Give the backbone structure.
Amino acid sequence: MNRRWRIGLTSIFIALVVAPLLLAGFVAPYPYAEQHREYPYAPPAAVRFVKARPFVEVGGRWCEVRLLPGNGRLFGVAAPCVIFLSGTDGNGRDVFSRLLYGGRISLMTGLLSAFLSLALGLAAGVVAGYFGGWPDWLLMRGGELVMALPWLYLLLATRALLPLHISAVEAFVWPAAIIGAVGWVRPARLIRGVVLSGKERGFVLAARGFGAGHAYLIRRHLLPLTGSVVVTQATVLIPLYMLAEMSLSFLGLGVEEPMPSWGNMLTEASHYHALILHRWLLAPGVAAIPVLLGFLLLADTLLDGRHD
Amino acid sequence: MLFLRYFGAVVLVVLTPVSGASGDALVLSGVTGERGGTLVFGQRNEPKTFNPVIAADAASRELILRVMADLIHINRATQLTEPALAKSWTVSHDGLHYVLSLRRGVRFSDGQPFTADDVVFSFQVYLDEKVRSPQRDLLLLEGKPISVRKLDSYRVAVDLPRPYAVAERLFDGLAILPRHILEPVYREGKLAQAWNLSSLPTEVVGLGPFRFKQFLAGQRVVLERNPYYWKVDQAGIQLPYLSEVDLEFAGSEDTQVLRFQAGQSDVISRMSARNFAALEKDRVRRGYTLSDVGPGLEYSFLFFNLNELPEGASPEAVARQRLFRRASFRRAVSVAIDREALVRLVYLGRAAALSTPVPLGDKAWVNAKLPHIVRSLPQAHQALAAAGFSRAPDGALLDPEGKPVEFSIITSAGNAERLQMATLIQDDLKQLGINVHVVPLEFGSLVNRVFQTHDYEACLMSLIDSDADPNPDMAVWLSSAGNHLWHPEQKTPATPWEGDIDRLMREQMVTRNRNERKRIFDRVQEILMENLPLIPLLSPDILVGAKNGLGNFRPAMMDHYVLWNIEELYWRAEAR
């Protein structure tokens, strides 16, 4: 298969996997915080088709699943029936709905922090590579220092110092900001390398000979050279940072209850009782596989192209 | 030598059942069993010390009390006091003077005799300010220490500075120390460093059923039978029955549960309701029994920060403080909380909702006349409307000044149950229009906020009482005390009702008539429920398990929940 086809196919795969997450407000049958206190730890509902019409079982009763039931959701069942495609957690919240909303948060954190770290990395890499000298030394040694710090422990220690009132947006942005701010070093090093070799290329030297200024050279000749590195880095960093967000939330440092993320959902699943009695709580771990795989496949395909 | 020691023990056994004259062994009537065998127990945390004088953490204390003995002991099953090293005692009419008669012929685990000198020395050490024993506070009544004098080799006089309702209960858990070993160390001023984790296990000498045999940091403590132990069963067999006890450190509850399920440990203590349910699945196949002992001495509650605000506090903080200080607001919050849902969802039904801030395990002291709190949103709305609160068009609750009501609840991140309770309460209060943030904090920083910086709004917490009596909670209810959670260490009571509680609690402490005490404490609970400084939530059940072949296994709701009668535990023949 040629490369363009492979890129297209993996992109479609990613879009298919990611779309329900982005459309969580429509696809999920319930809001993420809605508690069905009569149904704690309900197992995933059995689904059966009768004459091509889907039914779910709830407590021995079969209820018809209707498309677009009129509450702004993709599907649902009429009250008092309930539909828990992936079971419920200890508070009786629908795991499937929380999976979608939580996935959206993990994904957005991944995207946001990848964007942030690439932006920082691009700026630092170009400055270090282009100007050399003391800015280069300062940025690269600073970067090494950032990489050497044990961030997880620092975060655990500083969490207690944060204010108690954090709005939902802040709660989502701060892990993303931290992950992004810590992650700029690797892209910066790569981009510095590209810029270092790029500024010795014939057309750059020629442009400089004709009197082009620093800003022009960087904008017209050097930044375009970094494009492919930035794109492949993005595809590598997004899944990496999604995992980072999951680890932070898993440890209780990311988004907080009742807002879900795949990480804080897995916290409940990590207990012994969940592994024995409530295995459906592991759903976020399973759901993460196709999403992460999609991005990594894309990165692989893009990198293959570069070697050709 | 070994033979002689053993012989000595046998002589003691033979003589005791006949009469109490020469050897004063305590005969446990109704107790039978067989000697031999090892018990493996999965201990969650490692001890920090083997020194009973300075041990403050539960892991150390629970371990030390298996190798030490006290003068008067609280029977964990009946919750009544019973003779231990003191075989009997008399009290003067005013309740101030006790004379304790000690058991004769008792020996420490190194074979040295036990006398009144050891008792006097022990109290001297516990009461010495320089030693900084956490037990010292228990032996002070209104700031004055009790005094202990030797009358003769087997009698000591205990004088209280003022009457104390349950003076006998003071002696429980107070390990009697071997003077012959610790006095030189004490004279050098090094008692606090003695018997630490790097000491040889055999150096630690006590009067308990077992003595230390081996300690492997990070792995286990092995206890072996104390050949000089002073209790015998009804057939005259010297206790304990078990030859060895192997306490293996598990580190976490999940590890404890896994090991118990795999048969690697014989007894499990205090597990969560969820793990209890998970173990239930394999119960028959694996051959263990699980028991729900019922609600214990733990109680969970929510409280608001009622401390004085520091100079220069933000206007929001001032407004929030005004809000928290309204008893009507606290009552509305209380009645909006669905306690039945907390019991059902968080503890899978293995807990009991509270209608007073007294643990349900403390049955005799709970004021049963206080009404059950049934969740009622209309009632909450009514109370809030009467106090001038209103609702915004979007449903948000507005305080009498027209500001939306919003606050955060801090809770320990390490406790999954409390965290889940907080999220359920968050949802309950959302239906009142209150926006609640749940903030899980590492336990140390939570404690720091509540007791030091007072920088929090509301907190969800649990306390575990050390005894089924109102007195262990004196430090919670007295306004001047450090554990007066919502507003600790007040110079003078901040509110009239806190003054009333101070007066009543001090009164019950010196009242020796039990019914009168009960009446006073009932009144304290009424005041507490009128003002709700602590909004009571629930008392979790004590959930334990043991292998089927373990005889005399009688779990209790006081510590040590499963090994409190360790000297009576034995393996039935078929289980060996």
Remarks:
- Residues 95-131 of chain A form the longest helix (37 residues).
